[in-house]
Amino acid sequence: TPPESPRREHLKMAVWLLTTMLTAAFSYKVAAIMPFPVQVLVWSMAGTTVLGGFYAFFLHREGTKA
Questions:
Q1: Which of 7, 11, 23, 45 is most buried, by CB atoms within 10 Å?
Q2: Can you tell me where the transmembrane regions are (predicted)?
């Protein structure tokens, strides 16, 4: 799809939501069998992954130099 296509944005949202749900489900299962300090680590890593995906899909623009 073209870079500014509404369909492209819908597909990115669908992919991000599905990967977020997969990350949450995996983290839930893994954290359930871990001691509390490791649970905190698992959930913080999951949150970082979800936020990083959001940034990569929706906030970062290609071609910009920092």
A1: 23
A2: 14-34, 40-59
